[in-house]
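Per your request, structure below.
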């Protein structure tokens, strides 16, 4: 989302995180990157930092951050950071332990947005947004210099009239540039096969015959996340839209899609668009949504928002797909005492089911609370989102006041939130050398806009926190494991989790009916959770026995073994079973002959619930 000049009164901030907490998931201190101290010169902005590792696992890692637009005007007026050009780029050669390379690159009229990507030949690409185009700044010396962008002049401009550009590495030297056009918010993807020197359109993200096209309007536009690419070259682009009749300012984004181009895209490719989630009362982007793919091909989308009208707080939801985006399930990640959750980050691990998550969280239930106090959180799942280890990254608050999530519209509506100090996102990455995670976090603990006359430089600094190799990294050894069994396990008893961290159990028990005879049904349950050995505890089993009729109607059995009147199958009539791990439901009379479905609903100690259907016959 375009970062306009402080001269134009729209600003940016970030977030500080000190030491790590012990346990199965931990992070080292949040280290401020060079030129990040606002009390010293030169000072560079660090809001919405992007992070990328060299895919060869040689220890090189890079971070970029935008410097306001137009950077040169700000610099001449003494407004904003000390940067002369649009992008700050930091480089490390020792897996992020030290950052000896700090370069101010890009164009003098850039600074709207940045992104960073690394090719298999070690080339580093930094994209700097001018709005009229994107400058592609390329380094062939591990981030020491960027030969396409020298002294504020950019020689490689791509993607005319664009906003919120992303760079994504594909197989075989392919580099993708994705953005939405500035006027209509229409998502566009371009492809380079010559090391980023030239790009050409490579397909249509919104399928004219698909569901997203039916809802898209130029006034509503889209919010496009950074694409991910599978091992087979398939490109996945997650994006959201508001209702077609919504206001162009402040509308909730309540339609979420995944666009997929099998094997990659060319000029004639039409992406396949699939609905991930939609609801009239949803608010699905606080801001940006972020996506990832792990080493086994499982897809993830992480968002801060609401799934239904009237939902309390702004929750963190993880959506997952194991079939290339055709079908999705979701779960809430945030602990119950963290009620506002925004600016999420996610990265896939080396094996299937592994993902690193990061986000800003506050006990306040409203991100727009001008008195809110924010921390940064990290979480890890090794079993595809069934269980999580979570931890607060740092020992104290990382941001004070509201976090506006309306992008460039922040502050334009009187009485509405205006604090954009953090800009629009944080970032996460996994080191291919060891599977350990890294979080790039914007931070401004030095600003106190929540206090009368409190300091506020309307800007921020970039920090990086590293996951130590303590047995909890994303390797083959941790793949598929319950979170409580990884790295020594810092489980929290019932698995509900707290703001301080611990194991989070977010999936209900598995249940089945194994035997039906006469008046008795029997079955079993199992629960993956945060207890010893990665087990949860089933606390209740209920069963609804239905004879299905036409048109979605059912007749449900009573405890007496009689069939009730026809009703909607969705309503259900559940009877309490005896037992939990092994359960029994005994009816007073034998059911009439016929075919039935047993809906077995099991609940665990955390409150998670799952219903499983099993068919059986009575002869």
């Amino acid at each position: 989302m375009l970062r306009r000049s402080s001269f134009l009164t729209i600003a940016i901030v970030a977030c500080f995180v000190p030491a790590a907490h012990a346990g199965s998931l931990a992070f080292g201190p949040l280290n401020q990157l060079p030129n990040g101290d606002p009390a010293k010169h030169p000072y560079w902005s660090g809001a919405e930092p992007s992070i990328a590792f060299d895919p060869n696992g040689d220890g090189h890692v890079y971070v970029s951050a935008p410097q306001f637009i137009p950077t040169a005007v700000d610099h001449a007026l003494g407004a904003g950071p000390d940067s002369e050009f649009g992008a700050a780029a930091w480089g490390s050669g020792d897996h992020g332990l030290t950052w000896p390379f700090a370069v101010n690159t890009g164009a003098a009229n850039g600074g709207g947005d940045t992104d960073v990507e690394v090719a298999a030949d070690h080339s580093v690409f930094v994209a700097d947004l001018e709005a009229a185009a994107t400058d592609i700044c390329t380094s062939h010396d591990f981030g020491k210099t960027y030969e396409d962008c020298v002294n504020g002049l950019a020689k490689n401009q791509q993607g005319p009239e664009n906003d919120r550009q992303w760079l994504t590495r594909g197989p075989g030297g392919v580099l993708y540039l994705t953005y939405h056009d500035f006027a209509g918010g229409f998502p566009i993807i371009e492809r380079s096969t010559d090391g980023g020197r030239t790009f050409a359109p490579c397909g249509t993200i919104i399928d004219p015959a698909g569901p997203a096209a039916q809802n898209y309007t130029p006034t509503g536009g889209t919010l496009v996340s950074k694409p991910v690419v599978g091992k087979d070259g398939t490109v996945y682009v997650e994006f959201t839209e508001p209702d077609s009749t919504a206001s162009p300012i402040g509308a909730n984004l309540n339609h979420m899609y995944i666009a997929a181009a099998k094997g990659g895209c060319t000029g004639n490719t039409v992406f396949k668009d699939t609905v991930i989630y939609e609801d009239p009362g949803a608010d699905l982007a606080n801001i940006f949504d972020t996506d990832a793919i792990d080493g086994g091909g499982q897809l993830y989308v992480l968002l801060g928002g609401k799934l239904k009208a009237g939902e309390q707080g702004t929750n963190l939801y993880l959506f997952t797909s194991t079939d290339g985006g055709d079908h999705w399930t979701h779960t809430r990640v945030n602990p119950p005492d963290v009620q506002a959750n925004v600016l999420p980050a996610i990265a896939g691990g080396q094996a299937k089911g592994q993902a690193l998550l990061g986000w800003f969280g506050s006990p306040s239930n409203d991100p727009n609370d001008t008195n809110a106090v924010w921390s940064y959180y990290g979480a890890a799942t090794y079993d595809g989102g069934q269980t999580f280890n979570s931890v607060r990254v740092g020992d104290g608050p990382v941001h004070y006041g509201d976090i506006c999530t309306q992008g460039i519209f922040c502050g334009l509506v009187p009485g509405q939130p205006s604090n954009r100090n953090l800009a629009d996102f944080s970032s996460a990455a996994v080191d291919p050398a060891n599977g350990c995670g890294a979080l790039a976090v914007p931070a401004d603990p030095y600003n106190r806009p929540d206090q009368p006359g409190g300091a506020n430089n309307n800007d921020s600094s970039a920090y990086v926190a590293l996951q130590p190799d303590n047995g909890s990294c994303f390797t083959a050894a941790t793949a598929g494991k319950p979170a409580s069994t990884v790295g020594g396990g810092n489980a929290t008893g019932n698995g509900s989790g707290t703001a301080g961290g611990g194991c989070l159990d977010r999936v209900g028990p598995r249940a089945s009916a194994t035997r039906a005879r006469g008046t008795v049904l029997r079955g079993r349950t199992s629960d993956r959770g945060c207890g010893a050995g990665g087990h949860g505890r089933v606390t209740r089993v209920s069963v609804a026995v239905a004879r299905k009729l036409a048109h979605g109607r059912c007749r449900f059995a009573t405890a007496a073994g009689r069939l009730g009147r026809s009703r909607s199958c969705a309503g259900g009539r559940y009877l309490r079973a005896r037992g939990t791990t092994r359960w029994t439901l005994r009816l007073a009379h034998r059911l009439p002959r016929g075919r039935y479905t047993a809906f077995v609903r099991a609940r665990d100690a955390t409150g998670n619930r799952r219903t499983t259907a099993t068919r059986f016959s009575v002869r």
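The chain is about 0% helix and 40% strand.

Regards,
D.
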